[in-house]
Write a structure and sequence with these properties.
- Two copies of one chain form a homodimer.
- The first copy, chain A, is of the alpha/beta class.
- Chain A contains nine helices and 16 strands.
- In chain A, the strands form two sheets. Chain A has a nine-stranded mixed sheet, sandwiched between helices. The first copy, chain A, has a seven-stranded mixed sheet with strand order 7-6-8-9-12-14-13, with helices on both faces.
- In chain A, strand 2 (51-55), helix 2 and strand 3 (80-83) form a beta-alpha-beta unit.
- The radius of gyration of chain A is 20 Å and the shape is globular.
- Mean pLDDT of chain A is 85; it is low at 1-17 and 326-344.
- Chains A and B meet through helix 7, strand 12 and strand 14 of A and helix 7, strand 12 and strand 14 of B.
- Chains A, B: Keywords: Hydrolase, Protease, Serine protease.
Chain lengths: 344, 344
């Protein structure tokens, strides 16, 4: 485990700020053109020093999927791409596989069958290592099935449709990187309003998070708040059912559900949402999409820098290169107490 | 115009209560089996004394549509079915056609192209006669296009999809039977969340009302409140954007919209919603679906009875038959001050 040494940074960084970002991708992320999301993932994982653990377990096309992402991540500059492919809970106890997660700076879980993925890794040393990796600052990303598994409660499978109906979907337990939430993906494209609304109707303490294709919810810790920023082509839809009225506890068979008073947030690229207070961050208080990218990179760089200083394993020129990459003194959510970026 | 004589009923009925109900049907209403919605329409229009004006103008299959509904309404007991088929604004000034509307107890507008329907009838004597018919107590019903046209703001056309995107739909002016609202239909089946949300994002003073297929929003006036009750197989979805934050005034091209803080109500059969206060009517305060049917019929019957007494044109046996049909003294929202039905 590569936790940064306490005291390695000049200010007292609360432990939550050492957490790496989550990247929750709604599937079908652009792999050919701008590659906005995948670029962000590699950059946040350390760019040319990224060591990426790639988990294709959800997919039935394991080898091909590994080939595609391996080629992509290397093309985008990653130093190393290491497949981690447990096919049983037994495999997920293998210290070699766990070791790869432990030294990764970025973890990427592919699409496929999230119930297979969760059934194999949740509650195993490998699953625990993913949770720990985020705590020590690694990026945890996943697309489609790899997005679903990140929430505490996971859509196992179900049917599409805009109207919430009893029994239209099933819930299983996910990795819990996002607590008190359920994440759904391909949200617009597969018309999954209804099933996400069904789940939050039955569990009104959960936030429902629906992510469109080629769209990413980036979740970062800022102090004791979890902030969600949207990246990509579509939108992230959030259902907050905290004050809802529902008949989900008594609705029969597959009848449409009553779900009244759900607060809906539809968030396009650049929108920022405070998952802790469940409110939109006003645009004037908000870090722009571009700034957010810089912040992510800067955070990452600063974290590396702190680690490197502690380990004294880098030449001064490497440090200079890194500092140059942060593009000036704006580590908005890093150790610098002058937080928050002014609008440009 | 057949306005009931003032003083014809024993108590002072406020003018709003003389209004007939609206029946806003999301398309594809069941015509073969239980026919819940169509049955309700014929009953509310007076049952065996219903004189139904049928407007197939939205449809490109005018004659066939007339045949189908004519046969259906007669089978369900209507006394008369009178086609009213203006094919131009000129036609919509024809006193003969307007006369049919004026003597109808129920008006039914078919599906098809709502922009054709609105372009032909809105702002003509025929369109005005439909609005006036409701004020004097006639039922105004419409399915699909015939539902859309009932709101003040009408979805003209657009594309499907769950995520709201700029320019995905166009708005035109409707009949305005439901003010400060926009109605969409085939809501679940054609995945119209996005476009309805786009419209309310651009016009946050409007309530967005999405009606599923084989589902009906029955709107009645109760004092100075407009109440919506759901009938049928699907749900009615309501977006209340009053407190939303949005970027719809500046979003470019077809980009996904920000729409944060929209209050969502998904209402299955039996649910009741106060359109005036924009709140769910709690189940314990609510008139059950069955009771609502009786109330509608009883209201109708009482209104007829009052008219008949005033006109003294009925035999005592006809009056007795009618009274029997009201199934006991429960005119919950009629002149009887003992309002509200006890659960059975």
């Amino acid at each position: 485990m590569q936790l940064p040494e306490p005291g390695a940074t000049s200010s007292e960084e609360p432990p939550a700020q050492a957490r790496g970002p989550l990247m929750i991708i709604g599937g079908a992320e652009d792999k050919l053109r701008r590659r906005t999301i995948l670029n962000r993932f590699v950059a946040a994982s350390g760019g040319t020093e990224a060591r990426i653990a790639l988990l294709p377990t959800a997919s039935s096309l394991g080898d091909e999927v590994v080939e595609v992402y391996d080629a992509l991540f290397r093309k985008l500059g990653a130093a190393e791409v290491m497949p981690v492919r447990p096919e049983s809970r037994e495999d997920a106890h293998d210290p070699d596989l766990v070791g790869i997660i432990e030294k990764a700076t970025g973890i990427f879980m592919t699409g496929g069958n999230q119930l297979k993925l969760s059934a194999i890794i949740c509650g195993t040393p490998l699953g625990d290592a993913i949770v720990a990796a985020r705590e020590r600052g690694a990026v945890v990303a996943g697309t489609s099935a790899g997005a679903s598994i990140q929430s505490s409660h996971m859509v196992a499978f179900g049917t599409g449709g805009a109207t919430a109906k009893q029994r239209m979907t099933q819930v299983a337990a996910g990795l819990g990187l996002v607590q008190s939430a359920v994440i759904d993906q391909h949200f617009d494209q597969r018309n999954r309003y209804g099933r996400l609304l069904m789940i939050v109707s039955q569990s009104p303490q959960l936030l429902g998070i629906g992510v469109d294709e080629d769209t990413c919810a980036v979740v970062t810790s800022q102090g004791d708040h979890e902030m969600l920023t949207v990246l990509g082509r579509g939108a992230v839809t959030i259902f907050d059912p905290a004050r809802m009225a529902t008949n989900a506890y008594e609705a029969k068979r597959s009848s449409p559900l009553l779900a009244s008073g759900v607060v809906l947030h539809m968030l396009p690229a650049g929108a920022q949402f405070d998952l802790t207070t469940r409110t939109l961050v006003k645009p004037e208080e908000q870090v722009s999409d571009e700034d957010a990218a810089e912040v992510l990179e800067a955070q990452r760089d600063l974290r590396h820098l702190a680690r490197d200083i502690a380990a004294a394993d880098k030449s001064p020129s490497a440090l200079r290169r890194r500092l140059a990459r942060t593009r000036g003194p704006r580590p908005a959510h890093g150790p610098d107490p002058q937080d928050g970026a002014a609008p440009e």
